[in-house]
Structures are given as structure tokens and as C-alpha cells.
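thread: overnight batch results

M.L. [08:02]
morning all. the overnight job finished for the chain we discussed friday. pasting input first so we're all looking at the same thing
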Amino acid sequence: MRDTTANVGMTPTSKNSMAASAAATKTSGRQFEMPKIELPANLRELAKEVMAQTRGNYEQIETAANEAMRVLVTTQSAAAKSLLNYRTWLMKVAHGNFIAAFDFAQNLATAKSVPDVIEYSRAHARIQFDALAAQTKELTDLAHNVATEMAEPIKTSIASARENAA
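M.L. [08:03]
and the structure it wrote out:
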């Protein structure tokens, strides 16, 4: 019976030569001997220069990659801090609007006449309009601060890269 688990399609002769080759490799440690070639001195120098230049390029790339990572981490930290400030600001605004709405509802509940309802509504609208203007200004300032804080590490990195390039 033929062995069909391995060496499918091989003749007994090719199996024997493979076994002989494997045995030769086991005994000698290597199947082929590489010829020793002596390189000319100028070629060795060229190879050394290429290796030195490659190492220098690698170090520059590594430095640039580390700087880029530092900038990303700093920018991400600024973004996280800004997001926290924005969420805090939103909670403050929501709380103020909630209080204003309850005050308005309380005033309406105590109104004795239609002119009182109109006066409370006008006063509430004015207060809300002023609050909206103040909130818009605060939000604009907050957005400006976020953009400035996130752009600062990038600007610093670009300036540093320009200095290193010069």
C-alpha cells in the first residue's frame, strides 16, 4: 500500500534523494557552502556610508514620529479638558433656564389679571433674551478658547520643525 499522507505525486527515487539531502544537512549543518568574497575597500566604505545615512534617517523619522505622538496626546488632552468645560457650561445654562422657567410658572400662577400675565410674560421674555445673549457670548468665548488651546501644540510643533529644518 502506498503512503498517501505526505509527498503526494513523488516517485520513490525523489523520496530517496530528499532523504539523502536531509541526512547530508543534518551531518554537515549546512547544505550549501557560501563562497567568501572579498569586497573592494571603496565598496565597503560606500556600504558603511549608506548604513550611517540610513541610521541617521531612521533617527530623524523616529524623532518626528515621537514629536507627532506628543502633539496628538497634548491636543487630545486639550480637547478632553475643553469638552469637560463645555459640559460644565451646558449644565450651568440648563440649570439657569430651568430656574427661570419655574420662576415664570410661579409668577403666572400668582397672576390676578390678564395684564399681570402679559407683564410677567414680557418680563420673562426680556430676561430670557438677555440670558440668551449672555450665553451666546460665553459659548463664543468657550469655542475660541477651545480652538486656541487645541491649536497651540500644533503651532509649537510646526515652529519647532521649522527651526530644526533651518
